[in-house]
Write a structure and sequence with these properties.
Layout (H helix, E strand, L loop, with lengths): L1 H26 L13 H4 L6 H6 L1 E5 L14 H7 L3 H10 L20 H10 L4 E7 L26 H10 L4 E7 L6 H8 L6 H18 L3 E5 L6 H4 L1 H10 L8 E2 L31 E6 L19 H13 L2 E7 L9 H17 L19 E6 L2 E6 L7 E4 L4 E9 L8 E3 L5 E4 L14 E8 L1
Parallel strand pairs: 1-2, 1-7, 2-3, 3-4, 4-5, 6-7
Antiparallel strand pairs: 8-9, 9-14, 10-13, 11-14, 12-13
Helix pairs in contact: 1-9, 4-5, 6-7, 6-13
């Protein structure tokens, strides 16, 4: 037996040393040149946002993990069941699983049996998205890649026995789409996190052994275009060593020139620090901000993860999605739309249909979206017309077709060279100036079935002030 005890002592020592070794390897990679960013928010926030992100405008979010196995309630299933002990979740488990069943037992059932990353990437490309953000790890702690510090709780050791992050990344990038990685800082039930929480986050056992090594490993292994951080709300950025990691990311990492990050790096940072602001889920301001932002939302209004109890009333309609996209871009934001695959790796037809409907709309109206800039006026007073601009053109996107076929817009000021047309329709449109203010534009006399899209039509104005 002494040799068995010695073997376990060696393994424990190796497990404790491994995160430190990974950290040193990460820090030693590619010493950068040029401007250096110091580990403080004043310096980090001065970094210019890589241009590609603002130009992209539209991305697809993918929530996929062990929570896709019970597929009931929401992706917070484990917490609602055993963290909060909500009666409906306890009742669900009592009615569907044997006594004593534990959450980790869902792991082997997360098979990804029908996961075909090439088909996923084709769908994302057809949606008109320019980037994809994939969950590497949610708050349950299961990693969708072979994390060296997530033993027997990752997609290589359990369930799929595949590197899901790597496979999807290769497929997405082969279609020239940008690839972002969602990563939760916290893990609800990790014993080291619970210990730090008990200590009032004055210790950093979990950060040093788990969170930080994983972030460095993700960056060096997959070189993401976006690091979409989450799970920050219980503790300050100093607990997470956020500024130290970001200074390395911006100065010395292999993705220092292209990477974009959000604002969820501690309970004090959301909507205040970071490359772009999320502020909160489904955030959408009422006016133009002076900082780049992104609205993240889900096709299923009540969950980010797949759930079997989803009904049609819970699903965003095509019009709702397009309207949110238009309003977000008009106010200077990006729109990140979430879908949730099944445990087998299938994307529900309703999610496919919604993504494809966005793609059809973008095929006609993308000129008013991609690489656009907010105009001097973002929307008309009645909020039925929203504006974007691009070089010499102004785009007026109207959400409802006027009953008389005459569109009245107030904000544009014409010149002798003004020309007005509709995207998807050939030829110029007739228009007249109102005596008081604004323009009256005669829309094409077409049946609804002959219109280029079913909702949110775009008027292009060239030669306006």
């Amino acid at each position: 037996m002494p040799e068995v005890a010695e073997k376990w002592r060696f393994r424990v020592a190796a497990l404790l040393l491994l995160p430190l070794l990974l950290l040193e390897v990460a820090k030693s990679s590619l010493w950068g040149s040029g401007r250096r960013y110091t580990p403080d928010w004043r310096s980090l926030d001065s970094r210019p946002l890589p241009v590609w992100f603002d130009e992209a405008k539209f991305g697809v979010f993918v929530h996929w993990g062990v929570y896709s196995v019970p597929a009931w309630g929401s992706e917070w299933f484990w917490w609602h069941w055993q963290g909060e002990g909500l009666p409906q979740y306890q009742r669900f488990m009592n009615e569907n699983y044997p006594p004593g069943f534990s959450y980790p037992e869902f792991g082997p059932q997360f098979t990804a049996r029908f996961f075909e990353p090439e088909k996923w990437a084709d769908l994302f490309m057809a949606s008109g998205a320019k980037y994809v953000v994939f969950t590497t790890k949610h708050h349950e702690g299961f990693t969708n890649w072979p994390s060296p510090v997530s033993w027997n709780w990752n997609s290589k050791d359990v369930g799929p026995h595949r590197d899901l992050v790597g496979e999807l990344g290769a497929a997405v990038r082969s279609r020239n789409l940008r690839y972002g990685l969602y990563h939760s800082l916290l893990e609800w039930f990790h014993p080291l996190y619970q210990l730090d929480k008990k200590n009032g986050f004055k210790t950093q056992n979990f950060v040093n052994v788990k969170t930080t090594p994983e972030l460095y490993h993700l960056v060096n292994s997959y070189k993401p275009d976006i690091i979409w951080s989450d799970g920050e709300w219980e503790s300050p950025d100093t607990y997470w060593n956020a500024t130290g990691f970001l200074s390395w990311l911006y100065n010395d990492s292999p993705i220092k020139a292209k990477v974009v990050v959000n604002d969820r790096w501690g309970r004090n940072t959301s909507c205040h620090h970071g490359g772009f602001y999320n502020c909160q889920d489904k955030f959408r301001p009422q006016s133009l901000l002076d900082h780049k932002w992104e609205m993240c939302t889900s096709i299923d209004k009540n969950s980010w993860g797949y759930r079997r109890d989803m009904i049609m009333a819970d699903i965003l309609s095509e019009s709702e999605i397009i309207w949110e996209l238009v309003q977000t871009v008009s106010l200077g934001g990006n729109y990140l739309l979430n879908i949730a695959p099944t445990k087998d790796g299938l994307i529900d037809p309703i999610f496919q249909e919604r993504l494809l409907s966005v793609g059809r709309w973008m095929n006609v109206n993308g000129e008013a979206i991609y690489s656009s800039k907010p105009w001097r006026v973002q929307f008309e007073k009645n909020a039925s017309v929203w504006y974007t601009s691009q070089e010499l053109a102004v785009y007026a996107i109207f959400l409802r077709w006027p009953e008389n076929g005459i569109l009245n817009i107030i904000s544009p000021i014409t010149t002798p060279n003004t020309k007005i047309s509709m995207l998807g329709i050939q030829g110029d449109l007739k228009w007249v100036e109102r005596q008081d203010e604004g323009l009256l534009i005669s829309l094409p006399l077409l049946l609804p079935s002959a219109l280029p899209v079913g909702s949110a039509w775009t008027i292009k104005l060239v030669g306006v002030e």
